[in-house]
Amino acid sequence: MQLSNTSKYAIRILSYMAREDSEYLYKSNELAKTLNISYKFLTKIMTELVKGKFILSIRGREGGFRLNNPASSITILDILKHFQAFTDFSTCILGNGACNPHNKCILHDKWASPRKDIRNMFATTTIDIVNSEDFKL
Amino acid sequence: MQLSNTSKYAIRILSYMAREDSEYLYKSNELAKTLNISYKFLTKIMTELVKGKFILSIRGREGGFRLNNPASSITILDILKHFQAFTDFSTCILGNGACNPHNKCILHDKWASPRKDIRNMFATTTIDIVNSEDFKL
DNA sequence: TTTAATTACTACTTTTTGGTAGAATTAAAA
DNA sequence: TTTTAATTCTACCAAAAAGTAGTAATTAAA
Predict the structure, then answer these.
(1) Looking at beta carbons, which residues of chain A come within 8 Å of B92?
(2) How many domains does chain A fold into?
(3) Does the residue B136 lie in any domain?
(4) Would B81 be classed as within a structural domain?
(5) Of the candidates B11, B106, B107, which has its C-beta nearest A94's C-beta?
(6) A38 touches strand C (CB under 7 A)
(7) Average pLDDT value over all residues in chain B
(8) Does B137 map to a domain?
(9) pLDDT per residue as tens digits for the range A33-50
């Protein structure tokens, strides 16, 4: 009942990158230090974020990364989906084949409402939330 | 954002065992077949369930397993906790150290309410739910 | 007392996730 | 044109989770 490290890091990285204006180029080195993520693992995730079109990269000296879209348009759900961290709606929480109202696992009905709420929360929270209040990195 | 296979199996096994009256002894063989879980993996989980006092075992010929307590007293949360599938309340969803109102991750406030609802759902759902309606195994 | 049916134990293999190492590539600056 | 600071790629290593194999221990029935 928790997110993978990769998803967690991705959320923290992207929301941190929502702080500066869109011109600023974040370096892997800076990100790794301030977010306290191993440099090597971070660069792996950065590459994945580039492939997922969340960020764009400028290679070479003076290069770096910046968001590819306005922070207010990137939801937590977008990120989780990319890292397959939020299973789609046909798969139920007990994961015993697809659930439907006529053939449901014992938690099917109980899980429906919380699931909807979580999804909704993830879908309406964007990474620029960092600019509205004080958060730890 | 999902449960481990082991937790899922444990929930399915225990709720299946809530069907028959308390005298009946379930054999690993029967459980593995009806629940479609590999026999070897199932017996591993059964051993764990015995250690966790969820079930008791009768060894030897004509042996088997039965619930150790009334099905109506065993909650899904009990099971998840035993398999460490529900992290405790001090750890936040981004898992970046302990969160508190003065030092919180960006999802701290957003996650609070859904988390409470899920926990509540797990805490109030007992494995005898299978006896109130038709569910798949 | 032997046999068959059952759980329990120990150890291994496989798969997934998390993480690391090192070299290749790029492009600005010197 | 060389150096330097950055991303990218390929490959590996480690830890945890999932799953398998074989055998020992137990007990009732034959």
Answers:
(1) none
(2) 1
(3) no
(4) yes
(5) B11
(6) yes
(7) 92
(8) no
(9) 999 999 999 999 999 999
